[in-house]
TrEMBL record:
InterPro entries: Peptidase_M15A_C, Zn_M74/Hedgehog-like. SUPFAM superfamilies: Hedgehog/DD-peptidase (SSF55166). This is Peptidase M15A C-terminal domain-containing protein. It comes from the Bacteria. Residues 50-122 form the Peptidase M15A C-terminal domain.
Length: 139
């Protein structure tokens, strides 16, 4: 399929939303650091949590897990600036805010998992090349 070779770089929001949410989260979210969401740099560039994970994002992903019969795996959670560049992430990636996670499920394809994530209120980007779903919380 043509979609299998593409990596999705879609814009889900305006630049000003990124900075508004960054400021908001820095003032209210404290010390939320579940290991599954740690930065993929594995300590090469940061301590694993340059920012905290948004609790609503985690709740929504847990809700996805509750609707699926098999484990949902967080492939990429929080990212530091350097790891985001290494992974070819957007300059305004919500991974850098702790408001995005890429997930996978061995028993569901990208479209099925994306539909479930959308049903619990997450914004999604389907990444057919990597076989995962980018999930984002913007509120």
């Amino acid at each position: 399929m043509e979609n299998e070779n593409k990596r999705a770089h879609q814009k889900l929001n305006e630049d000003d939303l990124y900075y508004k949410l960054k400021e908001q989260d820095e003032t209210i979210i404290k010390n939320i650091q579940p290991p599954d969401y740690a930065c993929d740099c594995h300590g090469k560039y940061c301590n694993g949590f340059p920012v905290n994970v948004n609790p609503v994002l985690m709740e929504k992903i847990e809700a996805v897990q509750g609707l699926v019969d098999h484990p949902v795996t967080v492939i990429s959670g929080v990212r530091c600036e350097m790891q985001n560049k290494v992974m070819d992430g957007s300059n305004l990636s919500f991974h850098k805010l702790g408001r995005a996670a890429d997930i996978q499920c061995d028993t569901l394809g990208v479209d099925g998992l994306a539909e479930i994530a959308e049903s619990v209120g997450l914004l999604v980007i389907r990444d057919y090349k990597e076989g995962m779903v980018h999930c984002q919380w913007n509120e």
